[in-house]
Amino acid sequence: MAIKDPFNTHAEALQKGDTHSAEKIFDHFSKPIYAFFMARIRHKETAQDLTQEVFLKVIKSIDQFNRESGNFTAWIWQITRNSAIDYFRLKKPTYLADLPNEGINITEERAKSDESSKVREIMDIVEKFSTEERELFELHFIADMSYTDLARVTNKTESALRVAIHRLRKKLIPYLNK
Amino acid sequence: MINFIKEQLVIRRLKKYFREYTQPDRAFLKSAKLRFVTIAEQKSDISIQAKHPRLWKYATVAIVAIFSMTSGMIVFADVNNVSATNPFYNFKRISEQIRIGLSSSTKQIELHQIFAHRRLEEVVKLEENNLEINKKDNQNNIDKPISSESKIRIDKLNKDFEDETEAGLDDVQDPKIKKEVRQKFCQDILDTIKKQPDNRRDHVADRVKIKCDEGGIDTKQEQGKQQEQKED
């Protein structure tokens, strides 16, 4: 059963150019979207660029969004995921070549922080998980998405997601306790 | 239970680490938000047509309706040759202007001739109307002169007749115009003036004679012939 999304109303207002709704949408989605890109790409400037790109795409294609049959949260997250896929498809060779330097820069920047080294360690572990598990990790643990929003985005039931996240947690705990 | 609490604490700590790591800059958020809201605002300006589709539809229908009605009135006024007192009279004059504008030089002479006839007919009708009104007023013992409005209208129609004739005369001066056409025009105008004799139109008749004689049309000879035919 489709879950009603309160952001559909804001999306409809945005189609008419309502700035108040634009602000609401930005305030709600900008931080988790940035966090999602940051976790995937691990590069601040690129994450910022991609976040901006997502919101530009939202404005560009908001007229195609159908309030009655659509779900805005799922829709904007689909744009976000597609942007990440497009980024890796187009930039993969360059990114891989640049990765060691970027990694050193990030490590240097955060060298004093145990927390950031821990983060990088966990991310390296998560990268070895399946795509579905990795996405769940990024959306739930990093983008701090609720089960309701996760259900909208992944088109799964909340109970199925609770089980999947419980399993993911069990998988992560041994690494976290190290 | 203790394990569960431990797990929760570890996960909470993990989320805290990540929150710290993935926290966007305030400056970035501010500028990105401003950009997003500005573009959204521009979108509202661009989509005025999309926002008011009914308004545009009604406006188009109204324009088409006004255009159809106006052209209908113009055609009606011209076909029925409405009198100068008719509310559609101005539409008839517009139609005449359009017809002159769209026709060839030979056809224009013919049209000037027709319209000059029309102006005189209109003058005559107006004068007749005034006479009838005066008669009625006299019967009712009302001493009423011709209204200044009618007088102005009659004078204007006489002037329009003169203008039509002048325009026709200018056209017949064109060397491309055949002699027969010129002759026909001049004779027709002179006949029309003769039918409706009035000293206000004498100078028009004189101008026609002068112009037509200049153009090689012997109006005197033509008039003589007509006189002879009448006498016979």
TrEMBL record, chain A:
<dbReference type="InterPro" id="IPR013249">
    <property type="entry name" value="RNA_pol_sigma70_r4_t2"/>
</dbReference>
<dbReference type="InterPro" id="IPR000838">
    <property type="entry name" value="RNA_pol_sigma70_ECF_CS"/>
</dbReference>
<dbReference type="InterPro" id="IPR036388">
    <property type="entry name" value="WH-like_DNA-bd_sf"/>
</dbReference>
<dbReference type="InterPro" id="IPR007627">
    <property type="entry name" value="RNA_pol_sigma70_r2"/>
</dbReference>
<keyword id="KW-0731">Sigma factor</keyword>
<dbReference type="InterPro" id="IPR014284">
    <property type="entry name" value="RNA_pol_sigma-70_dom"/>
</dbReference>
<dbReference type="GO" id="GO:0003677">
    <property type="term" value="F:DNA binding"/>
</dbReference>
<dbReference type="GO" id="GO:0016987">
    <property type="term" value="F:sigma factor activity"/>
</dbReference>
<keyword id="KW-0805">Transcription regulation</keyword>
<feature type="domain" description="RNA polymerase sigma factor 70 region 4 type 2">
    <location>
        <begin position="120"/>
        <end position="172"/>
    </location>
</feature>
<comment type="similarity">
    <text>Belongs to the sigma-70 factor family. ECF subfamily.</text>
</comment>
<dbReference type="InterPro" id="IPR013324">
    <property type="entry name" value="RNA_pol_sigma_r3/r4-like"/>
</dbReference>
<dbReference type="InterPro" id="IPR013325">
    <property type="entry name" value="RNA_pol_sigma_r2"/>
</dbReference>
<protein>
    <recommendedName>
        <fullName>RNA polymerase sigma factor</fullName>
    </recommendedName>
</protein>
<dbReference type="Pfam" id="PF04542">
    <property type="entry name" value="Sigma70_r2"/>
</dbReference>
<dbReference type="InterPro" id="IPR039425">
    <property type="entry name" value="RNA_pol_sigma-70-like"/>
</dbReference>
<dbReference type="Pfam" id="PF08281">
    <property type="entry name" value="Sigma70_r4_2"/>
</dbReference>
<feature type="domain" description="RNA polymerase sigma-70 region 2">
    <location>
        <begin position="26"/>
        <end position="91"/>
    </location>
</feature>
<keyword id="KW-0804">Transcription</keyword>
<keyword id="KW-0238">DNA-binding</keyword>
<dbReference type="GO" id="GO:0006352">
    <property type="term" value="P:DNA-templated transcription initiation"/>
</dbReference>
TrEMBL record, chain B:
<keyword id="KW-0812">Transmembrane</keyword>
<feature type="region of interest" description="Disordered">
    <location>
        <begin position="197"/>
        <end position="232"/>
    </location>
</feature>
<keyword id="KW-0472">Membrane</keyword>
<protein>
    <recommendedName>
        <fullName>DUF5667 domain-containing protein</fullName>
    </recommendedName>
</protein>
<feature type="transmembrane region" description="Helical">
    <location>
        <begin position="55"/>
        <end position="77"/>
    </location>
</feature>
<keyword id="KW-1133">Transmembrane helix</keyword>
